[in-house]
Amino acid sequence: MKRSLFILFLLHGTALAHGGSLTMSQEQQTDIPWVLLYLFCSFLFLLWTLGKGHPLRLLAVANLTAPMILAAFINRVDFFENDHHRYVTSNGVPNHAVSASRFPMREQNYRFSFPKNPQIANSTTPVGMNLFGVAIDGVPFDPATAEFWRGDPRWNVNAFAVDLNIDEHNAHIQPPTGAYHYHANPWDQEKEFLVGYAADGFAIVNDRCGIKKVESGYRLKPGKRPSGTAGPGGDYDGTYTADWEFKSGAGDLDECNGHKVKDSYHYHLTEEYPHVPRYWKGTPNPSFFKRGPRRR
When comparing pLDDT for 11 and 130, which is higher? Predict the structure, then answer.
């Protein structure tokens, strides 16, 4: 019996070492057989403790049920396409660890689609309160915040100007839905890296063009904000998105925080404002809308 129990614990430990971190990373989903072995060993351990009336039976129950609870937070995302569109289904759980938050994260049921061969539109479309795009791990980019000065839609608070519990991946959990979303580039790379796709189908890359770091063309407005009922007053210091204005030629990118390279347009996520683009260059797919957008 002792020898059998030793072999059971050996298999259990081996399975845990190979599959124990599966709860956060989709790349490790090839290790699912190890997780199944872990659960099988845990089940046998539970049966043994219950049969013996062993004091470790409560630990055995926890050992079996904890991975099942954590399994709800496995990153699940699927990209597929046809001749005209790309499609994304996702549970909104990232492919990296999530720091402690004031609010619980909950699985979502995202279904996005966008053109496979996007075209530049005749005019840009403001993102507004909608989702700009989706990252390669299935988590959406949501540049705006739910905070406004006195509820005035003209004065939306910049995500990095107040304490919104933003984590090291430039993301947070939105109450009450529990949706985890990015407000800036989630991954730090020293060379150009595909981060995701915008609602209009154009690619989203980090702040590198090759190995060169690109710069946004947005700058703080000079002077002071309107006060009284027209605005919060004070200097244009970046607290609100309206504190910024685009200056053509001031940076490497256009008003949509993107540019053409070899006849191919793409967006950039920049370290400075707007972090995530606030305008679409093409025609956004409605699957990213929280409310219908207005054409500019």
Answer: 130
Q: Are residues 139 and 20 in the same domain?
A: no
Residues 105 and 169 in one domain: yes
Q: Which two tokens stand for residue 46?
A: 């539970």
Q: How far apart are CA 59 and CA 66, in angstroms?
A: 10
The encoded tokens of residue 71 equal 């399994």
**Claim: this prediction has a pTM higher than 0.90:** no
Question: Exposure pattern of 281-294 as b/e (b: 16+ CB <10 Å)?
Answer: bbbbbeebeeeebe
- In which domain, by residue range, is 9 found? 2-73
- What pLDDT is recorded for position 31? 43
What average pLDDT does range 96-124 have in this prediction?
Answer: 92
Provide the domain count of the chain: 2
Does residue 139 share a domain with residue 8?
no
Looking at the structure, tell me whether residues 123 and 187 fall in a common domain. yes
